[in-house]
Amino acid sequence: MDPKIAIFQHVPNEPSGYFETIFHDHGIPFEYIRLYDTQEVPRTRDASHLVFMGGPMSVNDEEKYPWLKQEKELIRRSVNTGQKVLGICLGAQLIASAHGARVYPFIQETGWHVLDRATNASGIFSAFPEQFHVFQLHGETFEIPFRGHLLAHGKNVRNQAFSYRNALGLQFHMEMTDTIIREWSKDLRKHQQSVIARDTPRCLAESNRLCRMVAEDFISGP
User: Fold this and answer.
1) 20: CB partners within 8 A, 6+ apart
2) Domain count, the chain
3) Measured on CA atoms in the order 66, 108, 90, 178, is the torsion positive or negative?
């Protein structure tokens, strides 16, 4: 099967951003599943790779958003059949929750933060620098599923990236572009806006480079 990517989008202002650029560069088709419109998870039999983006809701809000339960079921099926799964922020929490790990409210992180690569990081994360900058916008965290592997950790919120079989979960946002940063910053406090504006010129290029590494590894195999 030729690669085709299904991108699950939870709110209009959280697209796949820089991932789109990379998928276009490699000529790989993708389609958005806009759950904020459809309110249900469709069949994705023609998709070889699944990407689950972020959103302001909690993975525990299944009564309010019934499609969260459907997403978790799809993630479990996909992991069991060897289909590659990538989760960003809420998407990472969905992967964790789908495999029995707890997701719960924790410290709010906003803007650019430094993470440390885990000493025994495997896969593409073994090629990451020991420290790297990422963009954060979350108020919940997750435990690592049983037999999952921690890949990167933070100072205030430890669990930041993990692998579980053929799934990769990233608490942070690698999809950032100038446009997305402006959109997400407009409702923040003035001080947060100024700090993000200060940090973006020195952090975004590195973020894009690491995003490309992750994306190209994600699409490189079945």
Assistant:
1) 30
2) 1
3) positive
Q: What is the CATH number of the domain that holds 153?
A: 3.40.50.880
- Element of type H or E holding 37: helix 35-38
Q: Residues 85, 64, 56, 103: is their CA dihedral positive or negative?
A: negative
Query: Range of 202's domain?
Result: 5-218
Q: In Å, how far from its chain's centre is CA 50?
A: 11
The whole-angstrom separation of Cα 222 and Cα 206 is 27
Q: Locate 168 and state its tokens.
A: 């990769």
* CA 75/CA 47 separation, integer angstroms: 13
182-206 pLDDT, tens digit each: 999 999 999 999 999 999 999 999 9
pTM: 0.97
